[in-house]
Amino acid sequence: MGASATSGFGEPLIRAALPQPAPGIGRGWTDVATAVARMMPPQEIETIYVFRPIKRDGREWGTAVVTRVSSDSQEAAPGAPARLRVYTARYMLIARGKERGRVKAEVEEVALSPAELLSQVMQATADRNGDPEPPSIVERAAWYEPDPTPARGDA
After folding, report:
1. Are strands 45-50 and 54-56 parallel, antiparallel or unpaired?
2. Which long-range contacts (CB under 8 A, 24 or more apart) does 125-130 make?
3. Closest by Cα among 60, 81, 56, 58 to 69
4. N or C: which end of the chain has fewer CB within 10 A?
5. What is the DSSP secondary-structure string of 48-74?
6. DSSP per-residue codes, 65-117
7. How do the domains of the chain map onto residue ranges?
């Protein structure tokens, strides 16, 4: 008799770790990116901060903070600190059950903040939520096509 490849209960003895998607990538994040694009042109996005999703009871919740330069900052006096419009973007994905795959995404403008304070606020939020890591910064190109560059030539 040869050695069995299972524990005797039908479970494999060795479990392979599944690769985790990059931060901000996945079905729920795709719907968040679409909702954000309805609120603002993607080329106006300054920064995307993505918190680690929470998975529980067959559902997944994700939160991102998206910033863009405020039009007020563009009109401010030279040398004035840049101010960013801050948006919270969230999704809830149903991962199991008969509604599996359904996503609800929403975006809400929540603040106007000096740019230099934002990374501190992101770290403080992670600390308050008990997350050992600050949110990941996701490049705009991870959610949207690159900005088209104007063709150079004789006009």
Report:
1. unpaired
2. 125/51, 126/51, 129/51
3. 81
4. N
5. EEEPPPEEETTEEEEEEEEEEE-HHHH
6. EEEEE-HHHHHSPTTPPPEEEEEEEEEEEE-SSTTTT-EEEEEEEEEEEEGGG
7. 27-143
Q: Which of 7, 1, 55, 63 is nearest to 32 (CA)?
A: 63
Residue 35 DSSP SS3: helix
Contact 118, 67 (CB under 8 A): yes
* Rg from Cα positions in the chain: 21
Answer whether residue 61 shows pLDDT above 70.
yes
Structure tokens at 57: 């009871």
The predicted-structure confidence for 87-127, as pLDDT tens digits, reads as follows: 999 999 998 889 998 999 999 999 999 988 888 888 888 88
Non-local CB neighbours of 148 within 8 Å, separated by 6+ positions:
none
